[in-house]
Structure formats: structure tokens, C-alpha cells
From TrEMBL:
Pfam families: UDPGT. Belongs to the UDP-glycosyltransferase family. One of its GO terms (molecular function) is glycosyltransferase activity. Transmembrane segments: none annotated. It is an enzyme of class 2 (transferase). This is Glycosyltransferase.
Length: 494
């Protein structure tokens, strides 16, 4: 073996992880970096690469792992975000961009001439042994990895169920043949039959882009050569995992979640910096509170916020409602006085994992983002679903039909729901009040759903623990990276 090759074989395995510019993507990829470093601390060096304005999100995610030495061993590096017409300097995240300008950030991230130069400079400077790239963006990273002769599996921030459903619909082309206002049944799909109105499908499915056949072939070749990483666990989606593997889309599927586990312990009641919302929850009865949070990307109209406020008031149920900051919105006149201590409104950030673990929380009204799905399962809390974007409507079917841990907040047939803001009808206060009150009534649907989700919760924790399926897949991913490096070193030295 040549001296240089021998030196490389003894060095740590350097894994570069590159998420898209959304908090919901950055957090799970950072969590994956932590688990890679924790699995083999003496053999693995994990590096998360993002833009300057997004680096604080990575550091915050690692800080919650403290005092873990493995979190400290995850490195963070940055590259420049390009100047984009219509975006102010420093706006580099889908959570901070104005709703009307989100497409500008997405377009920049998807444009090779715009984004590749800075990313490629960083990749070649770091010279990693493997790259984990976001599934939905940065297709050119796989080409760079191929030039360097290193593996580049794709990471999905959603589960196997929504991924398999989306790919089935896309590859079999059923959506474009549906009549206006019609519905489509997901073809060749395991489990209960799943149908969705066309309005509840992402624009990617409604208006498929024209793919370059050569790029499409390269993409599929990448999956079959380097693999697919999903933030899920086998016991949650077993029949869908088996179906996905049987399709032959990827050489290997690594189910490595829930990556947010193990959760840090909730803040102690005596902690001086404990959140005010947790203090308020301490005053409420067990399983009595409905917790509402719609993620970092959902943008409700002021009219819908008014209806939601009045619906919560009319339900008579205690609630903790986290609202993404809207500078111009205020609750309806007199609402705070009428609700009184029965409800708490939080603007901005709230400690979601601590809230979900609190015994007073009886249900979670969620937009069906996959990170929230895993958090509520890990905490054993049933759900009322209110999807708004992307694959969230498909994920809703997973929760309400496949694993039955909750119900739709707005009953089927009550009105039009859509992934497009302009098509989504206003959900009226009366419907919200009735749905929340009925779900939470004694002996109601929440109790049955809680029993089912409580059966899944220990399985989620077991998956990521020593000997669990997800922990084994993390080790297998490292082993495969090491084997690829050894093969490359052997080729170089021969």
C-alpha cells in the first residue's frame, strides 16, 4: 500500500452532510450527524455543511444534546448563499422567507449554476469519504461525489409511507389522468386503500416537471449504488418498508429514526429558565389540554387565525396554541378575556418535545410534518390532523388510516383542502369547535387513539437504543462507507 493510502486508511471516516435550507430538513440531518458520531466516536468525523445564516440552527440542535461529547465532535462548516433577486441578504431559510418569496429560495436551491459553485468548492476542500445529500435538492452533489469516487446516499426527511406513495403516483402517472376535482387511488400500495383528491397533492404530482432522461437515469443509478436513508423505524412502517425494498428503487434502505431520540429530559419544575407554557401546563388536569402547532412553514391567513381562535373558544377544551409570529394579527376582540386561564397563546417558538411529554397534553393538532409525527409517536400523544403543504396530506392518511393514532380535524367532504393556498377553503370556527370537543370528550376517539400510540411509543425508543433496528442501520451505514473507502484505497494502491 502506498504511504498516502496507508495514512488515509488509518484516519477517521469523514462524512459530509448537506441539508436543504429549511429547519425541518436541517434538524434531522444534524441529528443524523450526531448519531453517526455517537455510534463510532473514534472512527467517524461528521460534518454538517450549510449556509452562514443557517449555521445557528445546527448549533442549537447540537446544544440540546449537551453535555454529550459526541455532539461536540460534530463539526459545522458553512458556504456562501448566493445573491437572489427579491431576497434580502441573510434570508436563507424557508422559515424566515416571506410566504410570497418562498419560490425564490427553492428555485435558487434547485438551480445548479446558482448553488453548485460554492458547494463544490467546499466539498473538494473537505475531501470527505462520503456525502449524505438531501433527497429533494442539490442533484449535482451526486455527480460531484461520482467524480470523487465516494458514496452519496440520499436522505429523506419524511417516512417510507409518504415517499412510497409519492413515487408510486409519480412513476405510474395516475394523477395527470384524473378529472378536475377528482380523486386518485395510490396504485400498488400495501395496507388499506388510500385515495386523495387531486387538490391535496403537491404541484410536483399535479404538474410533473419535464425530466431530462439522462439526469433521471443518473438519479436512479445513484439510489441503486449508494442507497436511501429515511428518518423512520421499521416497526412503525414495516409493510411499507418491505414494499419499498421490493420495488428495487435503492440498493439499500437505511431506516435510522426517530433521529430526534433520545429526547432530552423535560425541564425540571424547579428550573429557573423553565418555559412559561410548561408552568401553565402544570396547572391543568392529565390529558385535558389540546396542543396546537403547525410547524415553521405553514402560513394561515388572518381570517383563518380568527376562525381557529373562535373555534378553540367554542370548544370549551383547555388549549395551548403556538402561533408563528404574524405582526399584524391579533385575536378577536375580547377573546383573551373570554378564554381566560383555559387557554394559552404562544407566539414564536415553544419547547415542543417538552410540551408533548407533559402529562397534561391530551392531543396534538398538527400539520402532519414528519418530524412532528415522530415526536408525537415517541411521546405517545394522539393527533387531530390539519395538513397544509407538500406530502402532509399523504402523511395524514398514514396517521388516520394506516396506524390509526388520530382523526381529521375537518371531516371529509366538509370543504376543499389543498396544497395550494388559494384553493384551501376557510375551516369555520364551528367545525373546529365541534371536532376538538368531540375528540376530547370522555370515552371519545382520543382515548382509543392514545392506546394505539402508546403501543408505538416504546417501539420508537427501542429502535434507536443499543441493539435496536435503527441503531443497527446507523452502524451498517458506517460499515458501508468504510467498505467503499477501503475499496477506493485498494484501487489507488494497486
Amino acid at each position: 500500500m502506498a504511504p498516502a493510502a496507508a495514512e488515509q486508511s488509518k484516519s477517521k471516516l469523514r462524512i459530509l452532510l448537506m441539508p436543504f435550507f429549511a429547519t425541518s430538513h436541517i434538524l434531522p440531518i444534524t441529528d443524523l450527524a450526531f448519531h453517526l458520531a455517537a455510534a463510532r466516536p473514534d472512527a467517524v468525523e461528521a460534518i454538517v455543511a450549510t449556509t452562514h445564516a443557517n449555521a445557528s440552527i445546527v448549533h442549537s440542535a447540537l446544544a440540546r444534546r449537551e453535555p454529550s461529547i459526541h455532539a461536540a465532535k460534530v463539526k459545522v462548516t458553512t458556504y456562501a448563499f448566493p445573491a437572489v433577486d427579491g431576497l434580502p441578504p441573510g434570508v436563507e431559510n424557508m422559515s424566515t422567507v416571506a410566504a410570497a418569496d418562498g419560490w425564490r429560495l427553492e428555485a435558487a436551491a434547485a438551480t445548479e449554476s446558482t448553488m453548485r459553485p460554492a458547494q463544490e468548492r467546499l466539498i473538494r476542500e473537505i475531501s470527505p469519504d462520503a456525502i449524505v445529500s438531501d433527497l429533494h435538492f442539490f442533484g449535482w452533489i451526486s455527480a460531484i461525489a461520482a467524480e470523487l469516487g465516494i458514496p452519496c446516499p440520499l436522505f429523506s426527511v419524511v417516512g417510507i409511507f409518504p415517499t412510497l406513495a409519492t413515487w408510486r403516483l409519480a412513476l405510474l402517472g395516475r394523477v395527470k389522468d384524473a378529472p378536475p376535482g377528482g380523486s386518485v387511488t395510490i396504485p400498488e400500495f400495501p395496507g388499506p386503500e388510500i385515495s386523495l383528491p387531486v387538490t391535496e397533492m403537491s404541484d410536483f404530482l399535479r404538474n410533473p416537471p419535464v425530466f431530462d432522461p439522462e439526469l433521471g437515469a443518473q438519479y436512479m443509478m445513484l439510489l441503486k449504488s449508494s442507497g436511501f436513508i429515511a428518518n423512520t423505524f421499521v416497526d412503525l412502517e414495516r409493510e411499507y418498508c418491505e414494499s419499498f425494498d421490493g420495488c428495487g428503487y435503492a440498493k439499500r434502505t437505511y431506516c435510522v429514526g426517530p433521529l430526534a431520540l433520545p429526547m432530552p429530559p423535560p425541564a425540571a419544575a424547579s428550573a429557573p429558565d423553565r418555559s412559561a407554557c410548561l408552568e401553565w401546563l402544570d396547572t391543568m388536569a392529565t390529558h385535558s389540554v389540546v396542543y396546537l402547532c403547525f410547524g415553521s412553514l405553514t402560513n394561515f391567513s388572518e381570517a383563518q387565525l380568527d376562525e381557529l381562535a373562535l373555534g378553540l373558544e367554542g370548544s370549551g377544551v383547555p388549549f395551548l396554541w403556538v402561533v408563528r409570529v404574524k405582526k399584524t394579527w391579533e385575536p378577536p376582540a375580547g377573546w383573551k378575556d373570554r378564554v381566560g386561564s383555559r387557554g394559552m397563546l404562544v407566539t414564536g417558538w415553544a419547547p415542543q418535545t417538552d410540551i408533548l411529554q407533559h402529562p397534561s397534553v391530551g392531543a396534538f393538532v398538527t400539520q402532519c410534518g414528519w418530524n412532528s409525527v415522530l415526536e408525537t409517536i415517541a411521546a405517545g400523544v394522539p393527533v387531530l390532523t390539519w395538513p397544509m403543504l407538500f406530502e402532509q396530506f399523504i402523511t395524514e392518511r398514514f396517521m388516520t388510516r394506516a396506524i390509526s393514532i388520530g382523526e381529521r380535524l375537518w371531516p371529509e367532504g366538509a370543504g376543499v383542502r389543498s396544497t395550494k393556498y388559494e384553493e384551501h377553503e376557510l375551516v369555520p370556527a364551528k367545525a373546529i369547535a365541534q371536532s376538538v370537543a368531540k375528540f376530547m370528550e370522555r370515552g371519545g376517539a382520543a382515548e382509543a387513539a392514545r392506546k394505539r400510540v402508546k403501543e408505538l411509543s416504546p417501539k420508537a425508543h427501542a429502535a434507536i437504543a443499543e441493539g435496536g433496528t435503527s441503531r443497527r442501520d446507523v452502524h451498517q451505514l458506517i460499515d458501508d462507507f468504510m467498505a467503499a473507502r477501503a475499496s477506493a484505497v485498494g484501487t489507488t494502491s494497486s
